[in-house]
Specification:
66% helix, globular
Length: 236
């Protein structure tokens, strides 16, 4: 069973490129999860949970340590997102305001920008030195620690905004996908790079779909479509 989680356990080769079970099934499940979330389907959460377990094992073995930490965050937030979406429903008009797609507030956007900047610097510095502090756990130095960190921190923010159905989450996912296409190609996990190209397409589709629903609700003069400037995920 443990051999399944090794990047050396190859399912097939494509043009000389060895495809591990981790990379193949993790990629397929991640694509399915993004496709489901673009359609606001609650099954995106359990599918995504399985996918992040597989990708966590993959990223640890190829020394993208920030991405490994990111998968732990996805695992925890995935269970929370699953619970939250089940609680508020699937966005039907007769359900609670929490289930409605909305724009980010000024406070949310300011907090997100500060979080990405400070988080990238802190996480990048930490991952650049982690192998010297815990060599038994991280035997080799991290690859691209700051670039890896910025995609990780942006993903943290995007995941939380997505849980609360804030349309701004898709802009962050698109930025993450563009960087990821290059980063994973350089790290020679080419199927993951292709996955991020697929993510880019799906994220763009998700943005269009969520904005269309938001625009339609605004056109219907629904007052709950856009919260007041001081309300939202970070309101107290």
């Amino acid at each position: 069973m443990l051999s399944f989680f090794s990047i050396d356990n190859i399912i097939f080769s494509v043009l000389g490129y060895p495809m591990s079970y981790l990379e193949f099934f993790g990629t397929i499940l991640n694509i399915a999860a993004v496709w489901l979330v673009a359609r606001k389907h609650i099954l995106n959460w359990p599918v995504g949970i399985v996918a992040v377990v597989l990708y966590g094992a993959l990223f640890f073995q190829i020394r993208l340590y920030s991405d490994f930490v990111e998968q732990i965050y996805y695992l925890v937030s995935g269970f929370y997102g699953w619970w939250f979406w089940a609680k508020v429903g699937k966005g039907k008009k007769d359900e609670s305001d929490e289930s409605l797609i909305r724009k980010g507030t000024v406070l949310e956007r300011s907090f997100t920008a500060a979080f990405v900047l400070i988080g990238t610097i802190a996480l990048g510095w930490f991952m650049a030195h982690v192998n010297t502090w815990w060599p038994s756990v991280f035997p080799e130095s991290a690859s691209f620690p700051y670039l890896d960190a910025v995609t990780t921190v942006m993903s943290f923010a995007a995941q939380m905004l997505m849980i609360f159905r804030v349309v701004d989450s898709w802009y962050l996912w698109i930025a993450v996908d563009v960087i990821g296409i290059w980063l994973y190609a350089v790290k020679e996990v080419r199927f993951v790079s292709l996955l991020y190209a697929a993510f880019l397409v799906l994220a763009t589709m998700g943005l269009i779909e969520w904005r269309r629903e938001l625009t339609k609700r605004c056109d219907d003069d629904s007052p709950e479509a856009v919260p007041a400037s001081g309300e939202g995920v970070f309101s107290v």
